[in-house]
């Protein structure tokens, strides 16, 4: 399951989370985002008790992508303990995202 996150609640939902957080930065008009979105959702379902999956619409929430220097979408950010630990830019297979997530679960 994923949650919608905005610039105004990013601090609370992502940075203050007691679980690792995957943040999917996307836009409605972005074709590759539509390919990656369901993969991220699937990871959220599979790791529901271990990780939070957050979605940020970059068109409606410009502060977050600016703060994390996101220039291309989709961009997936990986947070743990309020810190950015890893980043993936572009459409990639599920396995690539899982490789970035696994170290955060230890």
Q: CATH topology, what is it called?
A: Glutaredoxin
- The helix tally amounts to 4
Instruction: Give a short account of the largest sheet.
Output: 5 strands, mixed
User: What is the string of helix and strand elements?
Assistant: EHEHEHEEH
Instruction: Name the overall outline.
Output: globular
Strand order of the largest sheet: 1-3-2-4-5
Helix content: 25-40%
- CA-atom Rg in angstroms: 12 Å
CATH architecture: 3-Layer(aba) Sandwich
What is the CATH top level name? Alpha Beta
Number of domains: 1
Which spans of ≥5 residues are poorly predicted at pLDDT below 50? none
Question: What class do helices, strands and sheet pairing give?
Answer: alpha/beta
Q: In angstroms, what separates the terminal alpha carbons?
A: 21 Å
Notable traits:
Glutaredoxin; alpha/beta; 106 residues; 33% helix; 5 strands; globular
Task: Walk me through this protein's architecture.
By secondary structure, the protein is of the alpha/beta class. The chain has a single domain (2-105), classed as Glutaredoxin (3-Layer(aba) Sandwich). Helix content is 33%, strand content 26%. It contains 4 helices and 5 strands; from the N terminus they run βαβαβαββα. It has helices spanning 10-15, 31-46, 63-67, 94-101, and strands at residues 2-4, 21-26, 52-57, 75-80, 83-89. Strands 1-3-2-4-5 form a 5-stranded mixed beta sheet. The longest helix has 16 residues, at 31-46. The two termini are 21 Å apart.
């Amino acid at each position: 399951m994923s949650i919608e996150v905005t610039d105004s609640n990013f601090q609370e939902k992502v940075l203050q989370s007691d679980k690792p957080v995957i943040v999917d930065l996307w836009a409605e008009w972005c074709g590759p985002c539509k390919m990656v979105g369901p993969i991220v959702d699937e990871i959220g379902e599979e790791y529901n008790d271990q990780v939070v999956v957050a979605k940020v619409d970059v068109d409606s929430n410009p502060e977050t992508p600016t703060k994390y220097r996101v220039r291309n979408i989709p961009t997936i950010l990986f947070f743990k303990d309020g810190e950015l630990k890893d980043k993936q830019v572009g459409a990639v297979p599920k396995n690539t995202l899982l490789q970035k997530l696994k170290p955060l679960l230890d």
